[in-house]
Amino acid sequence: MTAIVETEQQRDRATTIFEKSKPGRRAFVAPALDVPAHALPERFRRSEPPRLPEIAEPEIVRHYNRLSKRNFDLDSGFYPLGSCTMKHNPKLHERVAALPGNARLHPLQAPARAQGALQLMWELQWALGEIAGLPHVSLQPSAGSHGELAGVLLTRAYHEDRGEKRTKILTPDTAHGTNPATVTMGGYEVVKVGTTARGGVDLDDLRAKADGDVACLMLTNPSTLGLFEEDIVEIAAIVHGVGATLYYDGANLNAVMGRTRPGDMGFDIVHFNLHKTFTQPHGGGGPGAGPIAVSERIEPYIARPQVVKRDDGSFDLDYDRPKSIGRLRGFQGNYGVFVRSYAYILSLGSDGLREASETAVLNANYLLARLKALGATELLPPAFDRLCMHEFVLSGAPMKRELGLRTLDLAKRLLDHSFHPPTVYFPLIVDEALLVEPTETETKETLDAFAAAVAEILREGAQDPEIARNAPYQTPVRRLDEAGAAKRPVIRQPL
Amino acid sequence: MLAAIGVDSIDDLFAEIPEPVRLDRALELPAGKPEQEVYAYLRDLAARNVSAEDELSFLGAGMYDHYVPALIDSILSRSEFLTPYTPYQPEISQGGLQVMFEYQTAISELTGLPVSNASVYEGPSAVAAAGWLAHTHTRRDRFLVSAALHPHSRETLATTSAGWGTTIDELPLSDGVTDREALRAAIGDDVAAVFLGQPNFLGAIEDLEALAPIARSTGALLVVQADPLTLGVLRPPGDFGADVVVGEGQTLGNRLDFGGPSFGFFAAQQAYLRRMPGRIAGETTDVDGRRGFVLTLQTREQHIRREKATHNICTAQALNALAGMIYLSWLGREGIVELGELLVARTHYARETLTALDGVRALHEQPVVREFALTLDAPVAKVIERCVAEGVNPGYPLGEDGLLVAITEQRSKADVDRLARVLGAAVAAERGADRVEVAR
Fold first, then answer.
1. pTM of the model
2. Structural domain of residue A6, as residue ranges?
3. In the Cβ-directed half-sphere of B237, how many Cα atoms lie within 13 Å?
4. ipTM greater than 0.90, yes or no?
5. With an 8 Å Cβ cutoff, are A108 and B396 in contact?
6. Can you list the alpha helix ranges (DSSP code H) found in A162-265?
């Protein structure tokens, strides 16, 4: 193997902003004290100023600019992170979200004086309801996992209102980790449902486990395997047959907009990830928003306040919802996210949203076909050899067996090719899984280049697997000691 | 591309969707619009809102019109911060991970607690997350909640805990702060957590020195919802032994945005490290010994631990927390104290000035930092209506005759004096109207 030459960025070692602090330096200039000073009683007062950085504006800007260059981002390259829908974030959205009428609007402004914001939210509710095929939408949840919690709480309220105590919630073994975690936080027991060899929910297992104690089935469709649940009509019948609700994890909604709707499939509650399907930038881990759409029977319980249109055409916040589960958070939700997502819906419109889903599915199937054509799938076979929806799962098991390379090694070597790797080791039921989601905003050329890079890494690995095992080489830092970090956690700068 | 896949049409790609659930019509949404038309439409909607740009506003009650310095907009608009996902590949996410590490350091320092995560959704849901931690840690089923904890936090805790088998008892107030004797009477070995606000919803500073030992006397956790911006001048709750300190981060460099997105912070004592919700960044080294950062203690989290996770949160508020960290760097060690002292001075000046008006009294006499509560001898809704007509939004109504007034550094003495004139006239007019009603 060739000698490793340290890059300029690697030579530039990490220094925190606290380490750059020098006594007396500052950026902030306080407004003049124009009233008499007032001292708080001693027992309430902080004795020493908090040890925040002392640093001037130019150095703050350089510090964070330098840090920004140590991030890979969607505007710089292909980001096929499965289940995350890393589609382009249109730039118009930042401009409209920043308009003072939005950005400086206080959340407790009287509804009569926030009519534009409430109208926007009402129209977004309407649009999301149409996309989901369910009549009522609550925008309040802050992210997908928060929408899931809302769904479980709604399920509880629905059953309790009918005088029923149910204790279990079903989730497929392919589910996102948030599903079972949410079930526990909602006070239910998780019961796992198996998957068939074809990649669908195992109906026999479902029938065996669906009983009067089951409150809900949480399902992702297309599933986290990137496959449409062909038996969805039967699944809905089984779940409804025992009086349970059917919950739709909307993480994969990007596959089906305008083609099919969760409400038409029989789902009672749906969450949307506005930061996936509806282009809210991910921000390196948020903000997002996780609105939910619900059927008529669930509507009485949705969170308050709810944005409503009054008979006189004005918009209002409705708190008078006696059966509501209550609030899930402060104020009305992540409004700034609503502005961006509504801008996206207005831009694409009815046909555009359907086309987005169609192209997402086309791109995923094309990328899979391209990997097959290059022979890459001999070592990385698709876990289920069917047409996929907007994403697909490969298994690195043959690669591990034949070349001694793990999925992790392939992912790390992709970094040297300037690609963000796919999601790795999820779904859990596929050995050495790679979950690949290209999205609709990528060109054929990008997909071809990614497939070629994967094929090249496999070729290289056949000759010298050590190269990938020690990758990456060009990134700001190389492989990091995650086990050591967890063993002896250092989670803040000693001051 | 279709040929490469081996199908004839786009429809073939969707063949696995069963016939009965296919949508056989177009979505009933308007046709797409060009960028300039979308802009114009949303600009017109935004123009129908009365923002803090358009009136002299004293609204607070959980979110505050502090100045957001321009460097935050500039740094946040960098695509390298704006567009990546959660840092699952640390080698190409060192920027975001280091920001989390710096942020955790700053939150620890402000709250006086050794452990902070990298952000949660926002304030009230952070309070609920603290309740979940306390419930699972103590295996106890009763929460004591101060009546002056933000009402959104109280309601969010109640909503979120519906399936936990827990109950919530309210602690009454005495002159605007949590009643110490009531806490002493209510505490017991069945209590999982005691929740206090600092400053509380009425703007008053709680006497944590007196309350904390009582709250913690039976093994319950003390959870404080604090406003981080006030912690430059207020003693950190961690100093009084608070177990968990959470809160709304909007006051640290985040826009109002009609209520979000902002961020929630979550800090705790060392004993709760492995019960923390959400992402935590940790320091480590790479194979060549270079300093680096990773997401750590992930066995707490939903993607690893699933139904045994400490919380279900996945996407949090990383970009908003970055804004918070930039803001704290911009304020700096001295600035956060200077700003806090300015707020204290102007807020006390405002309270003195307004309570000198006829028909306006202080709802409590406690020391305050940025907000205070008044009682009016007139219906508050009508008083607000009159003030707003004069271009002044005097604050947030409390019940029939209360008013919560927030002062930020963007409200000068002259602004407060103008509020006094407008509010005084409005109260006088409404009292006059009252007398006319009575005479009739």
1. 0.98
2. 1-28+48-70
3. 33
4. yes
5. yes
6. 178-185, 203-209, 232-241, 262-265
